[in-house]
Each structure stands twice: as C-alpha cells, then as structure tokens.
Amino acid sequence: MKQYATGAPAETVAVTSSSDVVTARQMVRTLAQRSGLSLVHQTKLVTAASELGRNMLVYGGGGVVRAAPVSDEGRRGIFVEFTDEGPGIPDVELALTDGWTSGNGMGLGLSGAKRLVDEFEIESGPGGTTVRIVKWGR
Amino acid sequence: MATEDNTQRLVDALVAGRDEFTAQWNRTVSGNLQGRLSTAELGRELGELYEAIVQALTAGGLSGRGEEFAEVRSLLIELSRNRARQGFTPSETARSVLALKDVLEPALTTDGHGAEIYLQFARLLDDLGLLTTEAYVRTREEIISAQAEQLLELSTPVVKLWDGVVGVPLVGTLDSARTQVVMEKLLQTLVDTNSTHAIIDITGVPTVDTQVAQHLLKTVVAARMMGAQCTISGIRPQIAQTIVALGIEFGDIPTNATLAEALRQALKEIAQDAEDDARGLL
Fold it and tell me: b/e per residue, A60-81, with b = 16+ CB within 10 A?
C-alpha cells in the first residue's frame, strides 16, 4: 500500500474487550465525519472497522487500532490499521473467501470488509496480523 | 517489648481521652462532610469505630490487616458502603478515618516517645484509610454493574403496536447479551399478547455488521418458530448499501425502510387472514 500524506497525527485505541471495538468504531466515525466523507462512505468504513476490530479481538486476542486522515491528489480519506500479536492467519487466501470461518461467525467479516473499502492490505505471520485499509471520500 | 509498651500507652491515652477525642473527631469529620450526614448518625458511627479500635489495640494488634482488627474492618466497610451510596467522594470517606490522626497528634506528640507511638498509630490509620477506599470502589463497581443491567432491560422495550402486532425498537449496538434479552422479551410478548406479527426496527442501530446481522437473523428465526411473521424495518439507504457490500443475505425475511411501511404491511396481512377466516377458507 502506498504511503499517503497524513493530515493529522494518528489516533489509537487499544482493543481488549468488545466495548473497545465500539470505542474504536466511534473514533473512526468521528474522523470520517471530520474529513467530510459522505454518509454511505462513513457507514461502510465504520462497518469495515467494526468487522476488522472484532476479528482482531476474537482471533488475535486483542490489539491496537490506529486511524488517521490521509490525502492524495486532492482527495481525502481515512487510513485505519489493525495490529494484533495473535497466532496469525495460516491461509490468508482461504480466510478471504466468502462464507469461510474458523469461528462461529458468518464468514463474511474479512471478505466483506475488503469490499467495503477502497484499499485493503493484510500481512500475517506467526507473530501477529496487520490489516491496513483506506477509504476515500469520492 | 517496646512495641507492647507503646500499644499499652496508646490504649491508656485513648481510653483516658475518649470523650474529648471522639467529640473532636466528630467535629472534624462533620466539618469535612458539611452537614450532609446527620450528627447523630455520624456520632454513632465514629463512636462504634473508636470503641472497636481501642478493643483491637487492647487485644494487642497494631496491624490493620490483622485478626484483632476484623471488627474494625467490618465497621469501616459498612461505613464506606454507606458513603458510596450517599454520593460522598472517596477522599471524604477516607478522611473520616484519617481525621483521627489530626485529633490525636497534639495529645500524643508531647514527648519523643509519644511521637514514636503516634507514628505507629498513624501508619495503622493510613492502612485503615486505604481499606475504606477499597470498599468504596467495590461498592461503586457494584452500583455500576447493577445500573448496566437495568440499562440493558430499559433499552430493549417490546411494545404492542396494534392488535396482533408487536414492535421492538432497537437503539445502539446489538451484542450477544442484548440479543438474548431482546429475544426472550420478544418471544414472551408474542405469547402474552397473542400476536402474529413482529417488527424489529433498527433505525437506532448505527452500525449493522455481520455480528449484528447474525443476531438479528437468529431473533427472526426464533420468532418464526413460534409461528409469527417477523419483519426488519428501519433499513436506511447507507445501511442497505453496506449490507449488500458485506454480502449478508437476509433471505426471505421481509425488510422495510420505515416502521410505518412495515406496520401497514403487517395490518394488510392480518386483514387478509381475517377475510379468509370469514369466507370459511381456514
């Protein structure tokens, strides 16, 4: 993923419980509102953040959500990064398949989140997983 | 042996100056609480506490966590619980105990030996002061968790919209705990009101992710098993687009943009059923 110019210092939320997922979601929503994303884009980004935040909590044992406004060639967007130090995803390709779940969810969280945002990057290994997403204003 | 002598001297001083000390302690604490607690009640609390401390010291203890102080600790815990419920701050609660230091300081520190005794006693009171803070925090936590439970109950009303139609206006996030409460209430209300239609309105749910959707689907399936028609209303444009992008399938579950439209639909079906009844088709 390209390194975009950030408009403000990144805000972080540590996620260790499901109420922290709500906090992280609210942080992302506030940033998206401030950057002037439309309601549909805001909702898509916040929903993606909710999915990835919960994945991080359920499968990675918790982690950190970092978000910042970014800009590129005059368009404004939001960058969000989810980092955990969990066991990692053994087969990323499989995890990104619709309907596949290693837990008891719907199996749409990771693949759905990817469809909800404009840029999606996932790095996973035995030392943990990092997911980076960007949602542009238009 | 020096410690025992010290304790004995302390007990003697406390017994000799009982009335004077308790009265002064009372004044200091009530000044601190600014009359938000009745003087009689405070006097009783502090009097009991004073007696218990003297007894514990006589029994030979100088450690607040020791066995001799069991009575003192239970009195303090009760005092802290009451203060927490009455809305006093943790500092005000701890000062109720620590004020005894101010009272005893001039009386005990008349000579070097007395000062030593005073320091030992002050350490004991500090420990007891910490104990009040612990008990205070524990009580507040109990109050908070009780309120969270009440809120859970409050935030999930099931209302009768029409004869045969019940509605569940959901507000906020839907986690497993709330889903459980919603489901139980909805199913019970369906039985109690003899309703055939249920409408779950999600206008007040800001984010519908896969977890929320999964919980909604479970609730709908449960209502259907009871023979009720279940509709999800309040799907706003941005939510509809997000659900589609996520790939969530609501299957044959009817959904509506507004609660009004869902209610109209439900009433139409009920009227249709009644008509069929009248014609003798059923």
Answer: bebbbbbbbbbeeeeebbbbbb
Strand partners for B255:
B232
Question: What ipTM, to 2 d.p.?
Answer: 0.85
Same-domain status, B190 and B165 = yes
Phi then psi dihedrals of residue B194, to 5 deg: 55, 45
Q: How many structural domains are present in chain B?
A: 2
Residues B111-152: tens digit of each pLDDT = 888 888 888 888 888 988 898 999 999 988 888 888 877 776
B179 is in which domain, residue-wise?
159-279
How many A×B Cβ pairs under 8 Å? 61
A49 Cα to chain B: minimum distance (Å): 10
Q: How far is B252 from chain A (nearest CA, A)?
A: 17
Contact flag A108-B247 (C-beta cutoff 8 Å): yes
For the stretch A26-58, pLDDT in tens is: 999 999 999 999 999 999 999 999 999 999 999
A106/B213 touch (CB, cutoff 8 Å), yes or no: yes
* End-of-domain residue from the set B115, B150, B185: B150
Check if the beta carbon of residue A72 is closer than 8 Å to that of residue B174: no
- Sorted by sequence, the CB contacts under 8 Å of residue B149 that are 6+ apart come out as none
**Pair B190, B132 in one domain:** no
What's the pLDDT at B282? Answer: 60
Among residues B125, B150, B175, which one ends one of the domains? B150
> B177 and B139 in one domain?
no
Q: Which of A39, A51, A115 sits opposite B210 (nearest CB)?
A: A51
B144 with B6, same domain: the answer is yes
pLDDT of B177 > 80? The answer is: no
Q: In whole angstroms, what is the distance from residue A117 CA to residue B20 CA?
A: 74
Tell me: do B120 and B165 sit in the same domain: no
Return the residue of A nearest to B246 by Cα: A112
pLDDT over 70 percentage in chain B? 96
Domains and CATH numbers, chain A: 5-136 (3.30.565.10)
